[in-house]
Design a protein that fits this description.
single chain; mainly beta; six-stranded antiparallel β-sheet
């Protein structure tokens, strides 16, 4: 059965998740919002926008095994973060590999499908507008 996960920026519908295999989510992000500045240690993702428009920050690759504090320092030392942002809309997609810093900023409310590996709690949040901690947040799961 699909599972709804409430986020400060919208919500996710977890369509299917198979332990040790893959996960499929439908993501809804409301206009003018952004997800956490984050990376994953194991999880890989592919996102495909089906409607709306977003700026996607990606391609900032960290050394494998870096800790959260050093990852944030490395991000903050970048000269021009805008060089890592691409505007994407319907039918565009992107991939995130482990230890790749990424963030999505919605320009318009958007809907995307995300296919990923099964490590759902593997979220290292470097910045978050709602002061959410890294990992699983029980209160978001209804």
């Amino acid at each position: 059965n699909p599972k709804k996960v409430i986020k400060p920026w919208g919500h996710e519908i977890w369509i299917s998740w198979f332990k040790n295999y893959h996960v499929l989510k439908k993501i809804y992000m409301l206009e003018g919002n952004k997800c956490s500045l984050q990376y994953h240690e194991k999880k890989s993702e592919t996102n495909f926008i089906i409607s709306g428009k977003a700026n996607v920050l990606k391609d900032i690759i960290l050394k494998q095994g870096i800790n959260e504090k050093d990852a944030l320092k490395e991000f903050e030392s970048l000269n021009n973060v805008n060089n890592y942002i691409t505007t994407m809309s319907e039918k565009d997609f992107w991939d995130n590999q482990p230890f790749e810093i990424h963030r999505v900023y919605s320009i318009n409310s958007y809907t995307a499908y995300e296919a990923s590996t099964a490590e759902l709690d593997d979220v290292i949040r470097l910045q978050d507008d709602n002061n959410r901690v890294s990992g699983f947040i029980k209160s978001e799961h209804i």
